[in-house]
Amino acid sequence: MRVQSRRILLLLFVLFAANVALSQPVVYKFDMRHSIVGFSVKVAGGLSEVEGAFPEFSGEMRYDGKDLTKADFKISITVDKINTGNAGRDEHLRSDDFFSVATYPTITFQGTNVEHQGAQYLLRGTLTMKGISKIVEIPFRKRHDAPLVWIFGTPTVILEGELALNRKDYGIQANARWNRLVAATGELAMSNEVAIRLKIIAEGTRVDAVVLNAITTNGLDNGVKAFNELKKKLAGSDAIDENTLNIVAYRLLEQKKVEDAITVFNLNVQEYPNSSNVHESLGEAYEVSGNKKLAREYYQKSLALDPGNEVAKKKLAELDK
Questions:
Q1: For residue 176, how many C-alpha atoms fall within 13 Å in the half-sphere facing its CB?
Q2: Which of 32, 59, 192, 222 could form a disulfide with 218 if both were Cys (CB 3.0 to 4.6 A apart)?
């Protein structure tokens, strides 16, 4: 199998706010690698500030791609992974003076409703931290309204929001050394208020996965129909290229659905008649089916389009033994 490499995108995060799974809500999984759940708190009587983050979490939103007020959200944060850039301080934060990680290993949030307020939204939900649950409101923004597309046609939404919490509302008291009054300012050594920053990159289902699911669930004709609908919907974007159907067809080969795979590979050849890669892939499918004549024919077509296609050369040499 050889899936042609895509070009590197100039922008790391391209968004696709439209729902590629047609009209049904899609589960968008939070991308932990690129999302941020961060915080900052003032210390030393407000003269300095500590910043940190919770780099390990999981979460999702169900979203129809159009109306965020109908979306729902949930997230679970692994407190043990807290990181402020200071190992000693992080270990202290895990202790009973602060988060009591051994007893309360996670922070959770379950959204209850979303309101549209001018240029932004207001998310309400239940935040549970250190065994204490309270309703909070999170103002947030959707970064882009225009339907743009990430690599492989993954529908992606980026949301940003901030809120302030009183740490003592959740039983995070610290200790006498941290909380004594600073004589010079008359303020707490560590502020009660903690600023929370959220940047959530949420990913839906890739185009090839949508098409494959339509085939495996409702048959090949429905999969082809889904592909054609998506092709119209995403015209002019990078959501669909020759790799889309190639990936679908190879997955079908893995499932031993050889005839369906050949049909999809043939469709891809029709879509991209000048691609050496898709001809080679169709040749491979015919070889798997036992049709060496057609396998040889498409390997030869692949080489005619790209004499440097080493995979096609190797396959032809094997057939000619």
A1: 0
A2: 222
What pTM value is reported for the model? Answer: 0.68
Is the pLDDT confidence value at 198 over 90?
A: yes
Q: Which CATH class for the 208-319 domain?
A: mainly alpha
CATH number, span 26-203: 2.40.128.110
HEC sequence for 32-65: CCCCEEEEEEEEHHHCEEEEEECCCEEEEEEECC
d(CA 303, CA 10): 31
127-151: string of b/e by CB count within 10 Å (b at 16+)?
bbbbeeeeebebebeeeeeebbbbb
Structure tokens at 45: 């009587």
Among residues 29, 80, 46, the alpha carbon closest in space to that of 185 is found at: 46
How do the domains of the chain map onto residue ranges? 26-203, 208-319
Amino acid 175: pLDDT: 64
- Region label for 177, one of left (φ > 0), alpha (ψ between -120 and 50) or beta (otherwise): alpha
pLDDT tens-digit map of 152-176: 677 788 899 999 999 999 998 876 5
Q: Which helix (H) or strand (E) holds 310?
A: helix 310-319
DSSP 80: G
For residue 9, pLDDT over 50 is answered with no
The whole-number pLDDT of residue 288 equals 95
Distance CA 78, CA 290 (A): 51
